[in-house]
């Protein structure tokens, strides 16, 4: 997907002057056509003209999303060797592998916007790019793995289903496939917790409750800052990149999860959580946004560990990339000689 022309386009974008450029009549016509298509609920393809700001917004969001998937492999990956049964080990292996696949679809979608995979990964490894705050928390017990499936994947699905209707078609297509797999991920997490809660020992039930207590608030933070402080939301909603606001998605997640918690037989760690008949939603307590920004800013419990693990994986994999390129060169030489 990636071409030299796209690289040039990206470089031009990066060095564009901040003063508003004078737009040609043709550019204005293209912009009107773009806006009309967005207003009609249509899709934008990679080859279509798009405003520079739209392209940069998508590149930011899709690359952050891709980074989240591959960093998200790390907390669960730590438990593959310690899964309690062969069945759980096979499920966890498949789940972590799926997450690697999601990263690949998303990097491919981001590449259509003019940056190479190497540039995107360099931004992650140098600490310039963001990834989801949730993956900077530790996985202390086996119950954390079930809770990641239930709550983290549950929050991810809530946020990602509307992205299947994102105005940028390559992202929307990637999301359709990703959401199908995330739904399996959520169910396997819930199932593993249900087994511990219904057939486990008291110690196992306490382990599940402890994991839920630690993950609940960070999961609510996954949806991003409150709408009033979300710098990108208004423009992204206008362009049909985001379809539902951060706060509305968070509320939908709380409403769905409270009912699932009842079936599990666990409590959620929020004394202010209660049904509000007037609103038709659950009220919930205040989120610690200072903690959120600390974690986003690099000072969460596992930020350094996660980034170091990613950089090490990249460096350890250098020989694989070199071998693949050598193989490609050999095949090209053979094809030219034939
Ligand atoms: N963590 O103005 P907004 C998964 C940043 S995938 C870190 O509201 P926006 C699968 C935001 O980037 C989970 N940073 O921004 C899985 C911006 O900073 P910037 C990832 C965050 O983009 C499961 C600033 O705050 N999902 O879990 C976070 O309109 C299990 C202002 O925020 C996606 O990426 C955060 N939580 O809305 C894998 C979905 N929230 O860029 C393994 C796609 C906000 O200006 C195991 N992304 N920030 O420097 C989105 O839907 C949006 O980008 C939001 C943020 C909703 C995340």
From TrEMBL:
Coiled coil: none annotated. SUPFAM superfamilies: Ferritin-like (SSF47240). It comes from the Bacteria. One of its GO terms (cellular component) is cytosol. GO terms for molecular function: phenylacetyl-CoA 1,2-epoxidase activity. InterPro entries: Aromatic_CoA_ox/epox (IPR052703), Ferritin-like (IPR012347), Ferritin-like_SF (IPR009078), PaaA (IPR011881), PaaA_PaaC (IPR007814). Pfam families: PaaA_PaaC. One of its GO terms (biological process) is phenylacetate catabolic process. Keywords: Plasmid. This is Phenylacetate-CoA oxygenase subunit PaaA. It comes from Vitreoscilla filiformis.
